[in-house]
Each structure stands twice: as structure tokens, then as C-alpha cells.
Amino acid sequence: MAVARGEFSSKIGFILAAAGSAVGLGNIWGFPTNTAMNGGAAFVFVYLILAFCLAYPALMAELIIGRHAKSNAVAALSGESTKVPAARPFGFLVGITGIITAILILSFYGIVAGWMISYMIEPIAKMAGAPKAAEWLTDTSSTARNVFFTVLFMVATVYIIIGGVKNGIEKWSTRLMPLLIGLLVVLIIYVAMQDGAAQGFKKYLLPDFSRVTDPELLVDALGQAFFSLSLGVGTMLVYGSYIQRNENLVKLGTMVTLIDVGIAFIAGLLVIPAMYVAQAQGVQIFAEDGVTLLKEDTLIFQVLPQLFNTMGATGLVVGCAFFFLMSIAALTSSISLLEVPVAYAVESLKQDRKKSTIAIGSLILAVSIVIILNFGMLFGFVITLTTKYAQPLLGLCFCVFAGWLWHRNDILNEVKEGHPDAENSLFWKIWPWYVKFLCPLFIAAFFAKSVI
Ligand code: PFF
What we know:
The protein has 452 residues and is mainly α. 78% of the residues lie in helices and 0% in strands.
């Protein structure tokens, strides 16, 4: 008997859920940090080009495959729609590797999200007159603190995913995403009024074009674009499979990309000027050479708290609100990561949703704890393995499936659902050969560069 599948009840429900997956720590922390480390506006410029020219077509490949197959990534890629039967085991392998990658990403993502929660509570501890507790909450070296907040975050993730598509993912994403955007805008207005902000805006908005061909910058920008749009692990494929047949996929994919890139850009408008405001106040941000960031976590855990301190008592409330929203942004992303293995367990392995969510959540938590206990050795390693290698490579495989291994007519018919005139659209004139040739080629070239 077929397992009843969930669906997003509305267009806006999908957009907010998929944008919720895309918008996360990668936008508000990763993007500004990469921008600061790669010379400012030159990185922004390259990022925007790669996001629209490489990541967006790959996102469309996942959404189209997902909605056509109406299943998780493993079933979709190893099923009938793969026109070359010999490629089906390869599809199975790609799907399973995607699931393992999603599990590994969530295992480090949960740790960082846990820090966001502890930074959210710190101002409350300060207000309550508990300086010792406040100190513990921001002590990165405390294993107890790291484990406690990772557990808390994973429990919240599991709770939402047990609720399913409509009552879990959609309900929470629709509530939380607008809140996040509102607070970011308020903070930008505040930062813009501070001394030093103008220099930050300049650095962020006026590119030094001599840097745009820097290979390291290009590789960082591609990795950031893939991570930010949640590509390669099957997240967008699974979310695509929950879209109703009468919706226009091209429009939806474009909206999600615009929201994701837009929020990364807005986050940069906050964090980069805030960095220069903090510097004007005497906080050391760059190393002796004046261009290298002292530490990668400086921006979020030092610069912004410093900025909040300048606001006096209001700063405590703003700090708490900011880290609350970071936690929320992380949560709407982590639920999409957990949905990848859960959808496979429920549909392909015919397991109960609640039981498999708890079991997989516990497994991921166990991996997180192993990482916390071997932090120096594993944390950076897992991030590099998943985001620098696995995601772009798997993204490339999805493009190969959409471009070479799936029936072109299946793909066209799928795009036509909700978009009857698709065959004559600009999208259909460009996208098919684009995912067939250009995307795999460019991704492979970037990947080769990053390995060499
Ligand atoms: N896109 C999320 C972010 O920018 O924080 C992270 C992410 C979510 C990556 C889901 C991959 C994924 F499948």
C-alpha cells in the first residue's frame, strides 16, 4: 500500500519552508564572514553571479525531479524515470550519499545552532544578575554547555519534524521567517546611524574588480552558494516532492533563490558595517595584515555582542532577540535536513514517522556529541568534507540526472504542470542545455580547483 504523502497546503507555505531551509546560519554568519575574508564587495559580486547562474539551475533540477517523482531522493533517482537502467544503482548511491551528507551537516549545524541558543540566553542571565551563568553560556570550551544546547536544539528539530509537512514544517516556517526579516531590517537601521558604518557600507558595496578572478574567492563563493541554497543533499528535492501539481515550479524556485540571496545580502548590510562600527570602538577584528579576520567566529560572537553593548540596557533585549532569530533561522534549516533521512525511512523503508524521526534524531545527536568531544580534530573536518566536497559534487550529479539521465519529456511535462506555456518560456530555452553542459562543467572545474 502506498504511504500517504504530505504536501504543502499553499504556495506561500512552500516558499517560506524552502526559503526557511535556505536561509540559515549560512546566510547570516557564513556569507558575511566569507565576504569579510575575501575582500568585501568583490566576493558579493561573484557570489551573486554564481548563485543565479549555477546554484539556481541546480535548485530547479532538484525541484523538478522531486515533484515529478513525488518521493525522496533515493527513490526518485533509482526509479523508473531514470531512462538508462544501468544508471539506477548510481542514482541509489547518490541518494544515499545525500542522506549521509545531510546527517553529517546537521550534526555540526546543531552544535553551532546550540551556541546561538546559549548566546540568546546570556543577556537574560545578565539581566537576572547571574554573571557566572552568563560567563558559562558564552564559554566555547565548555563541553557541558555545548552538549546541553545541542541536545536542546535537536529536540526542537525532532519535535517539528514529527508534526509532518503541514503541521510541522509549513506551520513553523510561516510564523518564523517574517519575524527574522523584520528584526534584521531594524538592526540595519540602528547600525547605519553609528560611527564607522559608512566605511563598512563602502567595503561591502564597492567591489575591487581585480580580486574577482582570485581562485580561492571563486571556490568559496561556489561553496557558499550551494550551502546557502541547501543543494546537493536532496533537501530541495524532498521539499519539491511536497509541492502541489498545480503550482508553477519555475516561479517558486525563482522566489526561493531571490529570498535566499536577498537575505544573505541584507545580513551582510548588517554584519559588515557592524564590524567597522565595532572597530571604530576599538575592537580588534583583523590580524596585523589588516585583511585577515582574527577568527572566523569573530563576527557573530564578538562584533555583534559588542554592538549590542553600545545600546545600553536596550542592547540586552536586542542581543537576545538577535540570537533568538539566529536560532530560528537555524531551526527552519535543520528541519529540512532531518526531513531528508526521515522521508527515506518513512517512504522507502516503510517505517513509522514518529519512531524514525526520534531514532534518526538520536543518531545525529550521537554524531554531534562525538564531534564535540573531539572538537579540534572533527569539527572543521566534517564541515570541509560536507560543504566543500560532498555538496558541490552531489549537486553536479543532480544536474547530470536532470540533463542526461532523465527523460527530457518527463521533465518538460513536469515543468508544464502549473505553467502550461513553459515550452515557449525563456526558462525552457536556456535551462535544459544549461544543466546538461554548463552546470556540470563549471561545477567540476571549480571542484578540481578546490581540490588542487
Ligand atoms: N542553507 C542552510 C544555511 O544557509 O544555513 C544550510 C543547509 C540547510 C545546508 C539544508 C544544506 C541543507 F540541505
